[in-house]
Design a protein that fits this description.
alpha/beta; five-stranded antiparallel beta sheet; 16 strands; 19% strand; globular
């Protein structure tokens, strides 16, 4: 199991694709920090979007693929709200389950009610929901369009998702599309044993009728959330009021006719825009998440992000520099501010420990020193239990992540002079190299080289050789001039 903070654990998640968008072949294991690096137009964003779509489709990627509806099914095991733990009043099926939960040393997936068992199996193979989510996230008419970018257009697109722990598959789903439609098959391990916290939630669910209380009882095993910060986040933040107003105008019949040729948003852009439009600064975030946001404001932005919500209007985001009483509109702030403002806002009022945060190019428009501080923030998120996935082109970001891993490895040896506040281990970081017309490759951590892809060194070497050649020409010219 991957471990970050106490009580915060995630199963191992393996994703494999073939002929998916521009990706010929890829196999990745999601880590607490997963990094996609490489040439442009090689599929980094495609794979990040696929992960987002899968997590949304399956509500979360957890030990058991629960969904709110399957949790609700458990409440149908009895006919009325029970006053307390009077388990003797439960019907026979519920009584049997309750006794197994209480007395048996382990409670397996096969011990669940047959209706819930069958429903979870069916959820894995629900093609309509899966097709809709893929089409929504990639803004496609058909999922078959995802295979048109590769040279192997005659070969099927394949997507495989496997969730496991301790060398045991918990559940999996395989998806394929040969161009004529999507097909899926799912598997759930009958012998999977529920953890103690899962069992406690099940006990409570058997005695609950109220929907809200039922979901609260399943907080341990219920769905976590996934959030996506797209590359276009800066422009969306600066113009979200205008975008929202235009969408309202477009929602009328006349508006739909007038704007019929305008393409729709992808699912990630639409979800991000909804988070911004509906942003509520009063939402209580954890102290840890607020602390990470505050460090970004103090050390990188050198100011604070201010949220105002006019009566009946959309929220307005401004930047107040340190030692200044005036708050600037985002359009009057630097590109760095509007890029990082969305991350600060999401940490302050959206993302919680246990969630997944996907960020496209977190280094965009940042000075190298600021990029290294963003890498520190990503490591802090890992430490509090947020699963982070990024796409990047930044050598500085990778260098800092490499240093954080080195620090974590030194910490394992007990050689640190002081207790580090930010660190990673090589088991917590997975980096994958995307390049044209080749399978995606993992970049193993090296204590000397870090996690940089080989083509970065090739570019650096070519630049160095060119510089030496030009310098030699200039030196020769100076010598001739002196003669």
């Amino acid at each position: 199991m991957q471990k970050t903070r106490d009580k915060q654990q995630s199963p191992n998640v393996h994703i494999a694709v073939e002929n998916f968008g521009p990706i010929e072949k890829a196999e990745i294991d999601l880590r607490p920090l997963t990094v996609f690096v490489g040439e442009s137009n090689t599929g980094k964003t495609y794979l990040a979007a696929l992960i987002y779509a899968l997590q949304r489709n399956f509500e979360s990627i957890s030990r058991v693929p629960w969904s709110p509806y399957r949790i609700f099914q458990l409440s149908q095991l009895h006919d009325s709200r029970l006053p307390g733990p009077a388990t003797q009043a439960l019907p026979e099926e519920a009584q049997e389950i309750f006794e197994k939960l209480t007395a048996a040393p382990s409670f397996k997936f096969s011990d669940l009610p047959q209706s819930v068992h069958d429903g979870l199996q069916a959820d894995l193979e629900n093609l309509e929901n899966l097709k809709d989510e893929l089409r929504r996230c990639f803004d496609l008419e058909s999922t078959s369009e995802l295979i048109k970018f590769t040279e192997n257009q005659n070969n099927p697109m394949k997507v495989s998702l496997k969730v496991s722990e301790e060398n045991q598959t918990l559940w999996s789903v395989d998806i394929s599309d040969s161009g004529s439609g999507i097909a899926a098959s799912g598997f759930i391990n009958e012998d999977v044993s529920l953890h103690s916290e899962d069992k406690n939630a099940l006990r409570e669910a058997l005695n609950l009728r109220n929907w809200t209380e039922l979901v609260q009882a399943f907080m341990w095993i219920g769905p976590t959330k996934s959030y996506y910060l797209p590359a276009a986040r800066s422009g969306i933040l600066q113009s979200h009021n205008m975008i929202a107003s235009s969408l309202v105008d477009r929602a009328t019949r006349v508006g739909l006719e007038h704007f019929s040729e305008i393409p729709p948003f992808s699912g990630m852009i639409a979800d991000f825009l909804k988070q911004i439009i509906n942003y509520d600064e009063r939402r209580v975030s954890s102290d840890e998440m607020n602390g990470i946001a505050k460090v970004l404001e103090d050390e990188v932005l050198r100011g604070e992000i201010v949220v105002n919500r006019p009566a009946g209007g959309y929220p307005e985001f401004r930047y107040r520099p340190q030692k200044s009483e005036q708050a600037l509109r985002m359009s009057h702030s630097s590109a760095m501010v509007s890029e990082l403002a969305t991350l600060v806002l999401f940490l302050r009022g959206v993302v919680q420990p246990g969630d997944t945060l996907i960020i496209e190019e977190p280094e965009a428009h940042l000075h190298p020193a600021a990029q290294t501080k963003v890498a520190l923030a990503l490591a802090r998120l890992v430490r509090v239990g947020v699963r982070v996935i990024i796409t990047t082109h930044s050598d500085w970001l990778l260098e800092q992540i490499g240093n954080l891993v080195r620090e974590g490895e030194v910490m394992k040896l007990g050689k640190n002079k002081t207790e580090p506040t930010t660190w990673l281990t090589k088991e917590e970081v997975g980096a994958w190299w995307f390049h044209t017309d080749k399978p995606v490759q993992e970049i193993p951590f090296d204590s000397i080289e870090g996690i940089e892809p080989k083509d970065y060194y090739d570019v650096a070497e070519e630049l160095h050789n060119d510089a030496v050649e030009f310098q030699q020409h200039l030196l020769n010219e100076e010598e001739l001039s002196d003669e």
